[in-house]
Amino acid sequence: MTAFAQSTYVYLTKRQSGLFIVLALIIALLLLGAVVSDRFRTPANLMNVFEQSTALALVSLGQSFAILTGGIDLSVGSMISLASVLLSGISGGDPASTAFAICMVMALGIAVGLVNGLAVIWLRVHPLIVTLGMGAALQGATLLYTLGPAGSMPLGFDYLAYGRLFGMPVGALITIMLFVAAAAFLRHTVFGRHIYAVGDDATAAELMGLPRRTVLLFVYAFSGFMAALAAIFLVARFGVGQPYTGQNFTLASITPVVVGGTMLRGGRGGVIGTLLGVYLISLLNNVMNFMDISSHFQMIVQGLIVMLAVSIYIESKRKI
Amino acid sequence: MSRISETLVASPRNMIDVRRLAQSYGIHIALLTLILISAILSPAFLSAGNVSNMLLQIAPLGIVVVGQTLVILVRGLDLSVASVMATAAAVATSFSGQNGDAATIVMVALAIGLLTGLVNGLLVTKRNVSPFLATLATMIVLQGLRFAYTQGAPSGNVPPFFRAVGSQLFYGIPYNLMIMGVLAIIFSVILRRSTFGRKVYITGGNPITARLVGINADRITIACYLASGALAALAGLVLSGFVGVVDNWVGRGFELDSIVAAVMGGVALSGGRGTIAGALTGATILVVVFNAALLLGLPIEFQILIKGIIIIIAAAFYVRRSEA
């Protein structure tokens, strides 16, 4: 065996045994799906899974960063709702104003995240409460702006959601690239290591002179930015921004992070686990749909998976 | 998180005193100010009808808040309370809508609440799962079970007895408020006067110390989750008595409202500090704010906005000394 294969094997089984389990579950689901339904096996269906998971993957990436520092971002759902109505509202189908709207929405995501970070740092309030309050405020602002679907998008904007590049959905390609970049950033840059250090022990990190405040500001700004990106993809998919689009994403974005082995107390885990978590959950929903399992039971299964995941990871907790 | 930086940058002593004073009485001052402003802005606010209306609304939230406070005191968090409320109410009333079965209905509801609390407690203590996730998972599972059981459309009838308890007044005081009051007093006395209560504060204040002095911290924590589940189930019955029908979303939003109320009332998320009385004052503030916003004709979106801002301001008020 080559050294690469060997080191990959060691990495998966020894250092990231959780990831190994998630990967095994994904493969098991693929097999199960293939047995259950012919239509599951079609490339179109698998592309469909990729398409549907894009928005969740994007939010969860930002959420992973927040959770890695021991925090959490409960404002992402409302952020998505606000960003999506603003995007299509300002655009109004005009390409020129669409470019402006996209920039504005991204900037808004970063700004909201910075406010979250500042509140966490200066008010020293628990991130849970800060972002919960921010989420309520953003949802209020969204409803003040519009009570229903707002504006429209120019033709061709749905390329982001439905377009294909090298046979893959564009959104999925962008997502995978972002995740790989984020993983490299976390693992191989000094600032990336700082994020882990702050999450593992903020006091120790601060005593060592690491920029705790900069790290916190960065992760919340990044989380807000990723929520805005997710909103852009959702608008591309639905063709219009709606005031409740993001509602379910707040809690949904936490599940893949946890399933992927990132500890809520911070400092452990990584974004590749999150991506696998996203695909696991999307696949699970897809397979259960093919098996004609009612959405009620799908909910139960999802809850049980969260329980199972968090129970497994505690046993195998280990320093990065 | 910032324990050390705080000692390094110690604030002057008189500043701390002002902060302490504000921490002790700030919530009451805030409530009085709020009532005053509301009364000035809207003459209807202090009318007998509106006051009893508000009192009726405090009880369901208040009962949940009592349980939530217990859980937060041991460094926990219970996100499953709203799901427990709806599931308990939907399942327990599905058998019968008769007064004669009231005891059975209460028992079934309590069983659901206690079982959920037990799962939460075991996950948190024995499996070391973070409370946020453990209760999030039970919340989702319960939600699924409820929908699977009711097939999406609960058919339960609320017995007249529960309707009376949930919505009638006794010389101007709602029955449900009395229930809340009795429960609040019982649990306050337990927290203050009993060994168990002191153990709750020690466990939340410093779990390691608690273990070193021989307290079975796991048992204390599980007891708090059990209480929270049971109280949420009762609150579900009380609330469906107030509304008059059972639907799948009885108590929707109570998980966050109850946490917000407790935090506003000075219950520290880092555990070991806070009182039930304070948390209930927080719950009252929430009810008053919503009522006032409604009377002033502010649209619902303003209420959400105001709620968000209040949460942050209130939480900022109680600056944490240290974090687990």
Description:
The complex is a heterodimer of chains A (about 325) and B (about 325). Chain A has a domain at about 50-250 and about 260-265. Helix content of chain A is about 75%, strand content about 0%. Chain A has helices at about 5-15, 15-35, 40, 45-70, 75-90, 95-125, 125-145, 160, 170-190, 190-200, 200-205, 210-240, 250, 255-260, 270-290, 295-315; strands at about 165, 170. Residues about 315-320 of chain A have low confidence and may be disordered. Chain A has a two-stranded antiparallel ribbon with strand order 1-2. Chain A has 16 helices and 2 strands. In chain A, helix 5 (about 75-90) crosses helix 12 (about 210-240). Chain A is mostly helical. In chain A, strand 1 and strand 2 form a beta hairpin. The two termini of chain A are about 25 Å apart. With about 325 residues, chain B is mostly helical. Chain B has a single domain, classed as ABC transporter involved in vitamin B12 uptake, BtuC. Chain B has helices at about 5-10, 15-40, 50-75, 80-90, 100-125, 130-150, 160-165, 175-195, 195-205, 205-210, 215-245, 255-265, 275-295, 300-315, and strands at about 170, 175. Chain B has a two-stranded antiparallel sheet. In chain B, strand 1 and strand 2 form a beta hairpin. In chain B, helix 4 (about 80-90) runs parallel beside helix 6 and helix 5 (about 100-125) runs antiparallel to helix 6 (about 130-150). At the A-B interface, helix 7, helix 11 and helix 16 of A face helix 1, helix 6, helix 12 and helix 14 of B.
Strand content of chain A: under 5%
Give me the oligomer status.
heterodimer
Task: State the helix count of chain B.
Answer: 14
Distance between the termini of chain A: 25 Å
Structural class of chain A: mainly alpha
Helix content of chain A: over 70%
* Unreliable stretches of chain B: 1-11, 320-324
| Gyration radius of chain B, rounded | 20 Å
User: Which CATH-level-2 architecture of chain B?
Assistant: Orthogonal Bundle
Strand order of the largest sheet of chain B: 1-2
From N to C, what is the helix and strand string of chain B?
Answer: HHHHHHHEEHHHHHHH
Low-confidence stretches of chain A: 315-320
Q: Which class of secondary structure composition applies to the elements of chain B?
A: mainly alpha
Shape descriptor of chain B reads globular
